[in-house]
Specification:
single chain, four-stranded parallel beta sheet, Rossmann fold, 8 helices, Hydantoin_racemase-like, Asp/Glu racemase, alpha/beta
Length: 251
């Protein structure tokens, strides 16, 4: 065990600084240590599909590589998008644990409830959540997947109608699924979790706070991350074109 005060680096893989501010507020609400909040410089303004996630990954990796080579020591990285874009690649380049908010939220949901419902943004993203549930071994505990049909950018607003729409979707999910908790399927929803929980009377989990708590817990154990097999550092090789600056060096 270690008494070191952890620093968790939370990375928003979209380019919205407004969304990053809300995510940082949620992260700092539960953090026992420090939060380093970073926003991708390159990529889409929001992630709402496979294409968006694919083009967001280089900007995400850039932020991690910069931090790894910089002077600020961090104890974990949290990818603040419910699709967990670039998670496997991030684990290759990082020297500390990396989690995505979907993985963290699903893990936390199974710790506080028997069965949970996922409520996300647009219906087109439901297959992404479904795939991750299977990948993380949580599909059996998930009672259902639902979309409130609000775009990610809507959660940058303080408009009460956004809260009311999400609240209604959560109520419908609980009734339809007979579930015991709600897992919010967007990092941008994190600031609404506490208010939703009070209104619904069940745990409402957001992956931002779950991820910070879990990464701090791993840091407290002092366990190193494995760098074997598919989590080994990338093989150094030339990279041409727009991503040349991401060329990996072990030095």
């Amino acid at each position: 065990m270690t008494s070191h005060t952890p620093t968790i680096c939370v990375i928003n893989p979209n380019t919205s600084t407004a969304m990053s501010e809300g995510i940082a507020t949620s992260a700092r609400r539960v953090a026992r240590g420090e939060i380093l909040m970073l926003t991708s410089r390159h990529g889409p303004a929001s992630l709402e599909g496979h294409f968006d996630e694919a083009i967001a990954v280089p900007g995400l990796l850039e932020r991690i590589i910069e931090t790894e080579k910089g002077d600020t020591r961090v104890d974990g990285y949290l990818i603040a998008c419910f699709g967990d874009p670039g998670l496997a690649a991030a684990r290759e380049v990082a020297s500390v644990p990396v989690m995505g908010v979907a993985e963290a939220g699903m893990q936390m949901a199974t710790m506080v409830a028997r069965r949970f419902s996922v409520v996300t943004t647009l219906g087109r993203t439901l297959p992404i959540a479904e795939r991750l549930l299977h990948e993380y071994g949580k599909r059996e505990q998930c009672a259902g997947l639902h979309a409130c049909e609000l775009p990610v950018a809507a959660f940058e607003s303080d408009d009460d109608s956004v809260h009311e729409t999400l609240l209604a979707a959560c109520r419908d999910a609980l009734q339809a699924d007979d579930s015991d908790a709600i897992l919010l399927g967007c990092a941008g929803m994190s600031e609404l979790a506490e208010r939703l929980g009070e209104a619904l009377g069940v745990p409402v989990i957001d992956g931002v706070t779950a991820g910070v708590a879990l990464l701090e817990a791993v840091s407290a154990t002092g366990y190193p991350v494995s760098k074997h097999n598919d989590r080994a550092a990338p093989i150094a090789k030339p990279i041409r074109g727009a991503f040349e600056h991401l060329s990996w060096s072990h030095s």
